[in-house]
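Dear colleague,

Following up on yesterday's call, I've attached the two folding results inline so they're easy to grep. Please treat them as preliminary; we haven't cross-checked anything against experimental data yet. The first protein's sequence and structure tokens come first.
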Amino acid sequence: MIDLIIGLHSVYHACLNAERSEKMLLATAQSLSELESRYQINAKKLKQLQVQLKLVKNNDFQSSAQKIFQDHGQHYRRLPTQLLLQASAKSIQGPDELFHHCQDQTQFRLLALDRLTDIQNAASLARTAAFFKVDGLLIPSKNSFQLNSGFYRIASGGVEYLQLYQTPHLSRTLSQLAKRDFAVIGLSEEAQEISDQQKFNNGICLVLGAEDTGLSHSVERVLTHHFRLQSQGPIQSLNVSAAGVLAMQLFFA
């Protein structure tokens, strides 16, 4: 499987990711110069990172990119920057690997997204999770966002520093985490206010739901903690990506 990664920041961080193989960068001389100016990555450095470089003229970039998208059966839209990285797909692991990874780490930090289909919000949360050095991102197999080029662009490279976990039954996986002494925390407008004095000694899994429907009933039933963010003004709710920033600051900082 191949990921198609676009956007200056996303391409840079994916090039650095040693877990990705078969990396090939389609670029123009101008976009390569921009990459070097921003991140000190030139053709020599790309070779050291085992990234094959293919330079094309400005006028040929979009048609070359379109062909790559079509060859991989992916929907093409005109790319905002003249950089396109092909690389082996990001590793996605299952619940068994998750339980194995967290068994010896008392401070394992996990972000779970329940029924979140909007890639703008999902990618923003992935970027924030990387900012707070979260260990992993847990998503359901169904009714979830797509890991496509748009997602990678908006995540600005954040996803390269997260282990992705996928489960066919999110509530069951969260229940198993709770049995392993994880604090499984969900946000709700009806719950008690979050206290900045609240401390958790073991692993933490913060669960965020879709903006319009919130958390599913099956997920709510297995939460170990329900909290809300206290409004200081007339607006009582936040966009899920904004709420996620505040919640991660409280629980992961």
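Below is the second protein, in the same order (sequence, then structure):
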Amino acid sequence: MYDVRYEEGTLYYRLTEFRPQEARSRVFAYDPETESSTLLYSSDRPLSFVVMNDNLLIYEYQYGSEQQNIDEHMILYSPADHTKETLSIPAGYLTYDGTYLYINPVSDPPSSIILDNSLNEVTVVTSTLRSDSSGFTASYTNEEYVVFEKLWNKKYADEATASITYQFFPKSEIGKDSLHAYEISFD
């Protein structure tokens, strides 16, 4: 189970199955009162999703080689009337906090695009960290901060190690020319 979201009494979750050369994702809504799940969206590709205004905003992609995504789509899906619209906004992994949508594309240097509720670009946060990592994503938000996560995987001889760095950006600075980040690293 991945991408769990709880919105107005409903738990939304995604299940993704990976097999050699293929993947399948499904998004479900779980009603705690009836203890039942409903399939909302199914795809023959991996996806990331958020719930916005009773719709699903979906990043649908297909893995290429060397972690480059090919054939990416940003889709607005309405479970109420089963309509699907392809959007012309940048494609990438999604995080949403009710005020801002964070899109984390596969890019070098790593960055995150911040959009408002009308899907207008507010700012772009570019990582000041090394680019030889497995991602730079907005992984957590609260009222005051958005936290970006960056992970490195290293292998020395027969020993594998990982390092993770978190950058904390005050939300009060979103939209300004430069953002000041607080940083914590773990090895």
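For the second protein, one point worth flagging: The chain has a mean pLDDT of 80.

Best wishes,
A.L.
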